[in-house]
Fold:
Amino acid sequence: MLACAAEVARAVHRRGYCVVPHLFPQDRVDRLRTGLAPLLSRSQSEFTRLASGGRRSAVHIHNVIAKSRAADEAALDPMLRMIMTALLGADFVFHAGAIVTVHSPGCSAQQAHRDDASFYSLPRPRMPLVITAAVALDAFTAENGATRIAPESCWWERSRDARDDEYVAATMPAGSVLFWDGAVFHGAGANVTPDQTRRTLFLNYTRGWLRPQLNHFLAVPRAQVLTMPAALQKDLGYTASLRSLGECDGLSPIEYLREIARCGDGVQEQLGQAEARVGSGSADGRAETPPRQR
Structure:
């Protein structure tokens, strides 16, 4: 098992991605589908609403760990964790966390992006900082919009973009897992099928040392944080960065904390569910130009 994890890690380092066919057996895929069904059931009505407004994007449901225990089994898979350890070190932590996406028939292609674009100030190429594991809950085919990846783009300089003919479709059967370096250009393809929905569970991680030394979210009482000046709230991490690092279901951390204080701990399951988020990427998806100060 350890040798297999090392082989996957070598492939990701070399080409930027690797497909592990049938990593999850069918019974586990069935449990994931069943357990995530309450979240997935919301996606079609949300897609219909968006399509009526001219948007045909996939529906992204973020913060799945807080909204369902169904993803736990996937995140605890021994082989998946060995691969993440080989790529990011044993102290890897969630970055964007667990995300469910639903690509319904008619979904447009996703804009190509890099998942590690938040770290725009660091030079390229560089060591992997973000790794995504995409668990196929349905088969990925070219027709239903399988993720398209530009191989070896993790080694490119910042100034180089990928041409359309440099992308390959990461096709794979249900239960397979696609691992990729956040530095590679990628994006979902268009779902041109009349009746095939493609569902994916994303598990997105970063290196354990990309965080403050002290865990201020636990060290300082929440009630105390709410009474502090905005500048101190910012210093403790209760604002999102210029690249939206630190946000919670589309809200700034302090707004999220106010909702918890108003409704009680445990409301996290409901926050962000009024509208499933529609995003351009599994993690960040923003263009890699330094943000302007406002």
